[in-house]
Amino acid sequence: MAKSRKENKILLASLFFICAVIFLVIFSWSTSPLFKFTGYDSNVFKAMGKFMADGLTPYKDFFDHKGPVIVLIEWLGYGLTKSEYTLLLLQAIFLTFALYGVYKIAKLFLNTKKSVLIALVMLPVCSFFMSGQHGNTVEEWILPFLVWSTYFTVRFFAYKEKEHSFKCSILYGFTFAFAAFSRVTNAAPIGILVFIILIYLIKQKAWKNILKNALGFVAGVLILTIPIFVWFAVNGAFKEMIHATFIFNYEYLQHRAFVPNAAKLLRHTVRYLLPLVFAVVLQVAMIVKKKDVWLNVALLIQSIVAVAMQLTSPLFPHYLTIWVPTIVVTLILAVKDYGVMKLFVRGYVALLAVVFIGTNFLSFRKYNNILADNHQLYTDCCKDISKHIPDKNKNIVSIDLNPYVYLATDTKPCYRFFHMEDAFATYDPDVGKEWKKMINSGKADYIIAGNLKRRPCYEDIKKKYKVYYHNNRLAILEKK
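RESULT FIELD:
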């Protein structure tokens, strides 16, 4: 009997893994062998993994405002092998764990067949936010930790347990740290779940259990935080890591926050926010009908926060990936009470189907009409530039370019800032001063550049460099 259960688990995990691979091949354009488009963010992450594998220290030798866990994942997935296939495999493993977690959540209430089906529903939900965003996004890597944290939360409320296990709180703490060390706002979903559990335990006056769980949560945070702190301290980059991950990220969010115009907001809502908006309707309906009230209150807060955060950000849809568990668990709870929620469930499934078809149709049309040809021209120019670099052992940096140029030329930057240099300088005055100092130092023997005339650093660069070679899109500048 035990052997049969183990075989079923392996079979189920294998099914989820195969589905994850198929899904990623279709929707993760930056790592799929089917598409010739690598995506900007994905190239930044791959470049960071490559730089680390080449011996550079994150934040001290190269700068980005994403946290250290993403650098580590990209080092494992791309940096060590320089292959998208390894990265695709790692993506598939993470996604498989997420799918299995959703299955476990559904299995708390439903039979095996329905649970498997709802687990697979997570894939088209992910595609809303992933299609057109090229895959290999920060939020994808957090998903399995959020899903499994959600599982233990749902189980706690579903079984009406008197005490919450501190072991689960260790996972919550680890998930919180993992999310925070990618981008601080990614910790919002787990933070809300922990808050609701705390309110529930306070209501139960379970003071000892609250203390145990608080200690468990802190322990989970420290399990990840201590190794990160120690590694960066030993490598002389602790201050730089803290600044990039937390201080600079705050400044970045302050500058990128905005209120979009009505037309853009409407388009974005129709394409990406409808699943969350309708989830609010489902959650309110279940609360009114007194179905899983604590869980639905938690989900309702998550949904409201998700929409609010999205509407005060640059409207990047991949930011919404961290809320996929919210959408899926809402559907699970509604299906559980299908007799009462029949019309809501049918309407929600129909909505998800329409948004899935419409969103992905627009994304793939954009790829076919614009992205593929433009990217192919850029990659061809990068490969051409690679052939004409006089000496790759000398100091090289690219300015005003997609970081794919480092992957195509197999080079690494001699300056800490390797992409979005002028943009970063506008977010933080200290970064601006450091960037100007680097340009004026003339440390780079060669600069690979695009249209520098539109950049503030152009006047400083043209004093020290001349054009060595150029093609349709790029140029090699050589120090005079």
